[in-house]
Amino acid sequence: MAGIQIRVSNDKLNAFVVLKDDGRPPRYEEILRMLKSFGIKYGIDDKKIKELETLPRYETPILVAMGVPPEKGVDARIEYPFLEQLEEAQKQKKKFVIVKEGDVLAIKHPATPGKEGINVYGEPVPPQPGKDMNIRVGKNVKLVQDGLVAVATRGGIPRLIEDTVLVDEKLYIDGDVDYSTGNIDFPGSVEITGTVKPGFVVKAKEDIIIKNVIDAATVISFEGTVETKGVKGREKGLVKGKTIKASFLENANVEAEQDVIVQGSIVNSVIKAGGMVICEGEKASIIGGYMVVGKKVVTTDLGSEMAVHTRVEVGTDPRLVERLKTLQAQVRLDKENLERLNRVISSFKAKMERSKRELPKEQKEALAKAVQTLINLREAVEKNEEEIKKIKDRIEQESKDAMIVIKGTAYPGVEVTMFSKKYSFNKPISKLVIIFRDDEIVFRGYEGES
Deepest in the core among 90, 106, 194, 369, taking most CB within 10 A? Predict the structure, then answer.
């Protein structure tokens, strides 16, 4: 019998036969018995073994059984969708991307366990699992779906810093708002070192700080302050916020829920402020334009020596005025519709009286619809008239606290309105405090801070 040796690799995935020449070739059955005696039962290559009967090779390891190696697991990886968005934005020469609350910032693709192998002994060979890693989150980001997904908890600028994903609630623009940035609509606060160029729009939920000027552009803070070096409105655009702070306003359109505070002059501008308009500084002045202010106006000069027409209305919150106008217009329209409905209903009733019988089904349904609409309109008119009365009472009450403080001079061309009363200056008057008492505009001397 031919000498047969069996060798197995260290990893047990390969089995070899080594034949010794003893004068006759090995037999297929002998090799199989030898393999079986060694416990080898998986991956046996019958064809290779049969070849050894006719073409034996001696003193050479011949592979006759092969196991299946295990497949290593795939390592976990983190996908950051906003990085792809940023890359695309940069191709369009934009500097940043903005995410909203709830936007997906990171997705974890978990490591896989790998695939089990089997050795020549028929034993399972465990795979090496892929390396795990977790999403690291910073401010304004939370994990959901058992840590597989990270989402923004507020809007802002997404960033990846040292493998940590976060959302910055402040947008910082080093330069101008122009074609390189496009219009801005940001859910946090914004700081701009340059100018907002003509025609561009900056909107933010919170504060907006602009180190240079707003130049014929629109800047709106929905819940915060707008602070800028100045506004060159050119009678275009709009600046709007809770409070507006500037060094100057020139041909600007400004709306403040609370106050407008200017360190210099307001020239030919339209101002609406629910609280105060304050022009500070020795040369502070309000020249030209029109303003509606809820409580108080403070300035050095009002108008100019050139008698520029300057209108100031104090004592009425402009939002209340707009609401009052809207309600009054709605009531007028509803009353006109009530008159039409009454005529329609009267015509149906007259038809029923003439015919002494019920109306046809379609006309009966139309009558019922008209009656219900009439009831709804009457309720709406009553509700709106009640609100109109409350607004008028509030406007009248607030007008009593209205005040205009002129630390310097009020010039001809200035027209002051308080509630329903107007006064036009026809000569310069210095150091005035103007108030509203007993349904009249009253003048007092200015003696110091008010």
Answer: 106
